[in-house]
Specification:
By secondary structure, the chain is of the alpha/beta class. The chain has 15 helices and ten strands. The strands form two sheets. Strands 1, 2, 3, 4, 7, 8, 9 and 10 form an eight-stranded mixed beta sheet that branches. A two-stranded parallel sheet has the order 5-6. Strand 1 (44-49), helix 3 (57-72) and strand 2 (77-82) form a beta-alpha-beta unit. The protein is globular and about 60 Å long.
Amino acid sequence: MMLVWSYIGSRFRPLLTNGVVVTLALIAVLGLPRSGGLAAQEQHVIRIATLAPRGTPLVTTLQRWSRDLRQETGGQVRLQIFAGGVAGDEGAVVRKMRDRQLDAAAVTTTGLGAISRPVLILGAPGLITSYRELDSVRRHLAGRFDQLFERAGYRLLGWGDAGRIRLFSNRRIQRPTDLRAARPWVWRDNPIMVEFVRAVGANGVPLGLPEVYPGLQTGQTDTVFASALAAVGFQWFTRLRYMGGQSSGIVVGALVMRQESLDAIPAVARDFMIRTAAAAASNQELQRAGRALDDRAFTALQGRGLEVLDFQEYRSEWEALGARVTNSLAGRLYSQELLDEVRSVIARSQ
């Protein structure tokens, strides 16, 4: 979830000692060489949305990227950044891109799935449970995913990830049936979360992501599935007591742009955006640093008093639930053929 990175500079720093704050892999664009630029002509404005508020590292990075674009193109191209969720939750952002009100966005699988349903397979419960598996699947299916977005009229500029998915709660939850007494948050635009909670027999609480913290404050919801980075970044941890010792997946996100908008800007700007975003996404040093930061966030949350619950005794129950949900979504969100291929890639990556 790329937007999570945006909160780390302002929210996470107090939780760590001797730590380094790492922003989105997109930060790598700042160190890349520039060409000479062009003489100023008609200006093109790229409207990009993120849930991250102004003043946080992601938005600051986008602002610097906009300055680089202006310099690269002699003032022809700049970004107009809609930060802090002013453009709406991810479902609304995707709808606005379709309506040509926005050109680009940094979104998680929730937003990506709203563009192309099969991409939701990356968030199928219990399917991809390690970074090795995720890297293998994205590498193997890169061409297919690119084609899915191209057919939908978008360009996937770069992938990202933001930590391991864990269960955070205000009550002891160790086995799936324990969720029936809880009020788990369901991201209303994410069909996988909806199906997972329905399958376990719990009463999910549908909320947009910006509504989760108020929901935890009032007791409207008491359980969230998120990474330690997200729990810290959105300050959810201040309203939670327990977190899972094991994880069930990886938070995945990407930077996407409408192909029509990309084609409309000068070639020098288009090439610059594609090149720098791709270089940032493939920067393994930043990737490793970010992933290590999630582990450190988990440790820091223990120091803040969150009790770690061990799910190992009930691992088979969680795995059975995840497999049931993942299988039930084949033919609805993604094809059985794609699911079989992903499982094959995962098996080979072990």
